């Protein structure tokens, strides 16, 4: 199931939002642990999560390795002719190496993140996109450093003690990623579809003993490869405005500003980039007034030289999960 079938009139109450936040902390947290931390019954947790998943408003997946692949990942800004945005957005969304696709307000720009090898990158940038008459301009920014990505954002319905109780210890990343065999790749592929699958279900799916699956997942977790993303329409969490801010920051303050923005509760991604601007921040705001206050009150003191604000009209794909079919009513 993808989230494009979700009922747009779905309403999440406070407990639903707290459950989503629990999965934002740890997408594989056990039902009993969530129930204990939030002070509700395990049956309530199971029922509420099942309802949201069956309604198509919540999906938990393994986070694509944006952080590990930061150097070499690309941020694309694709300008298209009016009326052609849906076809181009669909083509990008269908690519497995493009986990994030947004249509920007105005309908003439698509934003996307591409994780790919040099060959696939060059075929897209120098062959496929230029050969498409609907594409008028493509701007490509290389990611130089990831301060925070979408897998680290939390909507703020848990207090610090609750979030800490749900968080798993983060082991130091190994200097050299461990080699992956066929079983590792099969497990990661299954978790990319549903990160909450229990060990028994994973074992049955990949044809391995459950004890082996447990050991492999522990090793993959130690290597930092089991980060999760609770994919949900931010409007259901009280965030009606999604915007990408392209910032020109004095180089001497780049690390300071990027680190500070990564800690801000409204920010769901901060990347240092190549190009005419050197920092991109993705932010959720309750409304346009909230976005104005973020620009003036949060960015103002950082001495940002220039800020371009691009508002997301439709999120098409997030963390590899289709949220909406291009062209679908919203």
Automatic annotation (TrEMBL):
GO biological process terms on file: response to amino acid
Pfam families found in the cross-reference section: AsnC_trans_reg (PF01037), HTH_AsnC-type (PF13404)
Coiled-coil blocks: none
Keywords from the named record: DNA-binding, Transcription, Transcription regulation
GO CC, alphabetical: cytosol
Matches recorded under InterPro entries: AsnC-type_HTH_dom, Dimeric_a/b-barrel, Tscrpt_reg_AsnC-like, Tscrpt_reg_AsnC/Lrp_C, WH-like_DNA-bd_sf, WH_DNA-bd_sf
Single GO term (MF): sequence-specific DNA binding
Annotated ranges, domain HTH asnC-type: 180-240
Record bears the keyword Nucleotide-binding: no
Name of the molecule in the record: Lrp/AsnC family transcriptional regulator
